[in-house]
Amino acid sequence: MSNSNPWQSPDSSGNSGESGPYAPPVLPQIPAQYGTPAPSWTPPPKPGLIPLRPMTLGTILSASLMVLRRNPRPIFGLSLIIMGVVTVASLILVGIVTFLGVDRTFSATGVDADIIEAGATVGVILAALFAVSLSLVGGSILQGIVSIEVARGAVGEKLRLSGLWAAAKGRLWALIGWSALVAVATFFGIVVFALVAALFFAIGGTAGTVFGVLSVLAGIVIGIALMAWLGTSLALVPSALMIERLPLGRAIRRSWSLVSGSFWRTFGILALIIVIVQVVSSVVTAPLSILGSFGAVLLNPTGNEAAGTATFVGLYIVTMILSVAIGAITIIIQSAAPALLYIDLRMRKEGFDLDLSRFVEARSTGDDSVPDPYVTVDSKAARASEPAPYAAS
At CA 144, angle to CA 332 and CA 317, rounded to 5? Predict the structure, then answer.
């Protein structure tokens, strides 16, 4: 008679056992070769600023903000010094030239008045162009130094100000040359479009005016398109100059090849960061502008001329200091983004994340013989004769 109790479990011989009505069923034995669990997935390491894998938009945005927070003293201090020198020098130069030009214009009489006025205008324009050039140079130097901080921070190194400056040593003139090239190209493009528009306006008549206006509009559209295209394709030149220490020509080709095939992604990330930074900066600086406009009246209700002048000067100085500090922060964020994109594109195109991981693992075990992962074949010859450019802390 068969066992009709459905809750009894069979014994090892297949017969019904007497283990009770609620005994669990005996599971089949799994051979040892099939019982080894599969290895679990482990995320890529994050030794410092970024995880060592191709980055998403969120990672690039957060890392751009973390550059300043991770190593604030040297980065913000250097940015504040550079932006302060550029701002003060520009204000002094433009202010002196403008004051002298206005003074000479008001004191001029007779036939020489028009010539003096034209000369004063040209002087102010040249001073303003020099101030813009000085700003470009300062911004390029800071972008190069921030790119070094991003590169070393990606492998967990934190440099002091002396280390950052030593790493940038020997490459600052290349950065200045790059900024000068950008300034000359921009100035040449503006001059060409201005001459074309002036030629149409010189023709006169309705047709000349119409073509002149159209040429101005076309120049603006073409100029914006060229700036977006060339600015994105060459956005990684400072990183290639400072991190790989390439000559200028090779750095230009390096940036172009890395961005090639990822233009729209690179353009979108850079444009988004610029928009975010500028919007936040405008929100912060708007109250400063309002305070500078109405603060003198609120703080000097009696209308005393001497007190009003002193109040206005004091508010202007405070507003300028705060504006320089905010500008120093924004330029760090904007400078970090191209360096992060440079590392990201090398990860995507060259498997650079594996090189960085090997370098970090070797350094963690005390092996200092591992070569710098940022050195490429093109840059080995340029760096062979250079001493170690940095000292991590």
Answer: 45
The token pair that represents 169 in the structure block: 């040593």
Q: In this model, does residue 259 exceed pLDDT 90?
A: yes
Residue 120 Rama label (left phi>0; alpha psi -120 to 50; beta): alpha
Please give the Cα distance from 154 to 146 (Å, whole number): 12
CB-CB contact of 64 with 342 (8 Å): no
H helix or E strand, kind and range, residue 364 = helix 352-364
Mean pLDDT of 199-227: 81
Closest by CA position to 190, among listed 229, 219, 212, 158: 219
| Dihedral angle sign, alpha carbons of residues 77, 78, 82, 83 | negative
Place of tokens 């559209």: 221
pLDDT given at position 390? 45
What pLDDT, on the 0 to 100 scale, is given for residue 158? 84
| Tokens read off for 116 | 């003096």
**Alpha-carbon gap, residue 63 to 46, rounded angstroms:** 12
Q: How much is the pLDDT for 255?
A: 93
Residues 234-264 as b/e (b if ≥16 CB within 10 A, e otherwise) read: bbbbbbbbbbbbbebebbbebbeebbeebee
Q: Are 333 and 150 in contact (CB under 8 A)?
A: no
Residue range 38-52: average pLDDT? 68
